[in-house]
C-alpha cells in the first residue's frame, strides 16, 4: 500500500466539489470493482486514477485518502435489493429473497471478503460496510418474518424466527470458504427450503415452489 493512501493532504488544502454526481458514481464503481478484483490492501489511489483516467491529485483533493474514498463508494451503493419483496406469504418472500441474493452473490460476496479484514481495523469502514451491504438486507428479511407472524403463518414465539436473516446472509458468506463456490440462486433456494423452512415450521410441500 502506498504511503500516500493512508495520509491525508495538509489540513489547509481546501476540498472543492468539481466532480459531477455522475462522474463520482463512475469513480465509486471503479473503486468497488478494483476491491473485488484485488482486495483492499492492493487498492491504491494511483490504481483508481489509472482505471478512471482521473488525476490522482483530484482524488486526494476530493476525498483525502483511500479509506475515505472507499467509505464514500460504499455509502453511494447502499442497496435495497430486498425491500420491494412482498409476495403475500412468508415462504414466497423467502424464496424470492433467495433468488435475489443468489443473483447478486457473485458481486457482493467478493466485495465483502475484500473488505472484511480491513473493516475490523477501521470502525468507520466497518460502519460503511454494514450500512451499504448488511443492514438494508437485515431489515428487509426481518420485515418478511414480521409480516409472516402478523398473517399467522408462524407463531409469535417461533424460536427460529430471529435467526432467518443470519442464516440467509451467513450462508452467502460461508459457502465460498467451505466449498469454494458462490451461494447462487439454486443453492440458496435449496437452503431456504431445507434449512430455513423447517426451523420456522413451514412445509415446502404445502407452501408452493417456484
Walk me through this protein's architecture.
The structure is a single chain. With about 210 residues, the chain is mainly α. It is about 65% helix and about 0% strand. It has helices at about 20-40, 45-50, 55-65, 65-75, 90-120, 125-150, 165-180, 185-200. Helix 5 packs across helix 7 (about 165-180). The longest helix has about 30 residues, at about 90-120. The model is unreliable at about 1-15 (pLDDT under 50).
Detail the topology: elements first, then pairings.
Elements: H1 21-38, H2 45-52, H3 56-63, H4 66-76, H5 90-121, H6 123-150, H7 164-179, H8 185-200
Helix pairs in contact: 1-2, 1-4, 1-5, 4-6, 5-6, 5-7, 5-8, 6-7, 7-8
Largest sheet, strands/sense/barrel: none
Question: How much helicity do the residues have?
Answer: 55-70%
Helical stretch count?
8
Structural category is mainly alpha
Give the amount of beta strand, in percent: under 5%
String of helices and strands: HHHHHHHH
**Could you tell me the number of beta strands?**
0
Residue-averaged pLDDT, rounded?
A: 86
**Radius of gyration of CA atoms, rounded to a whole number:** 20 Å
Q: Please state the overall shape, judged from the principal axes of the Cα atoms.
A: elongated
In a nutshell, what does this entry contain?
With 210 residues, the protein is mainly α. It has helices at residues 21-38, 45-52, 56-63, 66-76, 90-121, 123-150, 164-179, 185-200.
Spell out the key features of this protein.
8 helices; 65% helix; 0% strand; single chain
Amino acid at each position: 500500500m502506498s504511503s500516500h493512501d493512508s495520509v491525508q493532504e495538509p489540513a489547509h488544502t481546501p476540498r472543492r466539489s468539481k466532480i459531477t454526481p455522475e462522474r463520482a458514481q463512475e469513480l465509486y464503481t471503479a473503486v468497488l470493482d478494483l476491491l473485488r478484483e484485488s482486495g483492499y490492501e492492493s487498492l491504491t489511489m494511483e490504481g483508481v486514477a489509472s482505471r478512471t483516467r482521473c488525476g490522482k491529485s483530484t482524488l486526494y483533493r476530493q476525498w483525502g485518502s483511500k479509506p475515505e474514498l472507499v467509505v464514500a463508494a460504499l455509502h453511494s451503493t447502499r442497496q435495497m435489493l430486498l425491500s420491494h419483496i412482498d409476495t403475500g406469504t412468508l415462504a414466497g418472500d423467502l424464496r424470492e429473497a433467495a433468488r435475489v441474493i443468489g443473483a447478486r452473490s457473485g458481486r457482493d460476496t467478493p466485495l465483502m471478503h475484500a473488505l472484511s479484514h480491513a473493516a475490523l481495523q477501521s470502525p468507520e469502514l466497518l460502519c460503511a460496510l454494514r450500512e451499504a451491504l448488511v443492514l438494508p438486507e437485515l431489515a428487509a428479511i426481518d420485515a418478511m418474518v414480521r409480516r409472516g407472524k402478523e398473517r399467522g403463518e408462524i407463531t409469535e414465539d417461533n424460536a427460529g424466527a430471529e435467526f432467518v436473516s443470519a442464516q440467509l446472509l451467513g450462508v452467502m458468506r460461508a459457502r465460498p470458504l467451505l466449498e469454494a463456490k458462490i451461494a447462487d440462486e439454486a443453492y440458496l433456494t435449496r437452503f431456504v427450503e431445507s434449512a430455513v423452512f423447517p426451523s420456522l415450521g413451514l412445509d415446502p410441500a404445502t407452501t408452493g415452489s417456484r
